Amino acid sequence: VQQISVMLMELFQRARSEKPGQVHPRAAEFTLTLLAAMYDRSGTGYIKTRSAAAALIALSGDTLLAKYRAFFQFYAVPDGKMALITRSALRSLLTDLNQIPAIVGEGCTLSCVEIATHSCFHGVLNSAIVEEKFLSWLRSEPAVLLWLPTCYRLLATEMVSHQARCR
């Protein structure tokens, strides 16, 4: 938790200097509290870096494709010249990401994660998949992660302005 705290302070300090007035002075503290509530419920003082990274990626303002690629990079395992994501790595990713809606009482069960993992690996004979298969599956908007593209679309529409007037 201490290492993540330092990293968050640096991250938000950099963001504050790039976008003055747009970053709350206590953003690092608030984010750390959120991460601890999601990933350290028992108060051990330990949060897996990969879990925290997944949450920060999911909550970032980046595009969905950039988020999906980052998820793959953090959870994939090297296999020669390429990286692959295994079933267990996908389960870990989905479990980590589902802590985000769970914090507001919208989590899914372990069976949802298993169903999603099975759907991602449907028709796959190998024990792992390449990035393109993973991205293709995420683009199909699996139910277990439907909240992620929904939140992205809501964020994207906040900036839309129309010249039409309503009566």
Automatic annotation (TrEMBL):
InterPro entries: EF-hand-dom_pair, EF-hand_dom_typ2, KCMF1/Dystrophin. GO terms for biological process: synaptic signaling. Gene3D superfamilies: EF-hand (1.10.238.10). Pfam families: EF-hand_3. This is DYTN protein. Residues 65-154 form the EF-hand domain. GO terms for cellular component: plasma membrane; synapse. It comes from Podilymbus podiceps (Pied-billed grebe).
